[in-house]
Amino acid sequence: MIKSDNKIIIAIDGYSSSGKSTLAKEIAHLLNYKYIDSGAMYRAITLFALRNNLINPKDHSIDEEKLRNSLNAIHINFKYNSQKNSQDTYLNDDNIEDEIREMTVSNNVSFISKIGFVRHEMVRLQQEMGKEKGIVMDGRDIGTVVFPDAELKIFMNAKAEVRAERRYLELKEKNIDVSYEEILENVRKRDHIDETRDESPLKKAHDSVELDNSNMDRKEQLEHIIGLVKERIKEA
Ligand code: DC
Q1: Domain 13-229 has CATH 3.40.50.1820
Q2: Is the pLDDT of residue 1 over 90?
Q3: Which of 186, 199, 209 is nearest to 13 (CA)?
Q4: Segment holding 210, helix H or strand E
């Protein structure tokens, strides 16, 4: 445990399955900080849209007006699950942690997360969560849009094949039936949409520290980042 009265904000951005959440959780645990998976919030809205037929999973067309009018009926929160020693995502008090990781949500989430009013609302909620600092948040626009003044910004990347292999093993472990090729295609497609969308495209903040972990294990990554965390806490 790293103890300090100086609380900072740690923003971790990067490509899908680049290991952001694993690293973010480990850092949050060491610092006794709040961890927020912002991707889970976009996934939760996507699940809501799918359940309410606001997005067509075949052509990804969206009823934007209905979705906009439904925003105040969507309540997303996180609750600690002691059995898993991690957080579960809730949508209107329904535990949706497993469902939001399934391919139906993965294949539709980029279409929901590129909508301006959806991003606007998510950013507002995320900023609210970080008001007291002492938070580690991961996503795509955390260091650029949500917390542009974060004391530590990390930008993570790894080769698409390495990321697809990681996601494949993760889903296999959860007994979700999916092929490696399907995941690689989904990873590439999401990279493209995330990088080229008009609203807050995925890009490295000029003041972030880049971490390519294609050839790094978890321990090496954590040691590297912990060094930076200690520096930034002292400066805060
Ligand atoms: O991190 P993830 O793969 O669970 O994120 C799911 C999707 O949500 C991803 O395709 C991009 C989007 N996302 C986003 O646009 N902005 C964020 N801050 C987090 C995720």
Answers
A1: no
A2: no
A3: 209
A4: strand 209-212
C-alpha span between 218 and 236 (Å, rounded): 26
SS3 140: coil
pTM of the model: 0.92
The two tokens of residue 187 are: 């990873």
The CA 38 to ligand 1 mean position distance, Å, reads 7
Q: Evaluate whether 37 touches 87 at the Cβ level (below 8 Å).
A: yes
Burial class (CB in 10 A: 0-12, 13-18, 19+), 25: middle
Query: From the CB of 141, is ligand 1 less than 6 Å away?
Result: yes
The token duo for 70 is: 């439904």
Model confidence pLDDT, tens digit, residues 164-183: 999 999 889 988 889 999 99
How far is ligand 1, taken at its centre, from the CA of residue 13, in Å?
Answer: 10
15-48, pLDDT tens digit by residue?
988 999 999 999 999 999 999 999 999 999 999 9
Nearest Cα to Cα of residue 101 among 188, 181, 17: 17
Average pLDDT of the residues in 5-11 = 94
Kindly give the distance from the C-alpha atom of residue 39 to the centroid of ligand 1, in angstroms, as a whole number.
4
Q: How far is 159 from 170, CA to CA, in rounded Å?
A: 17
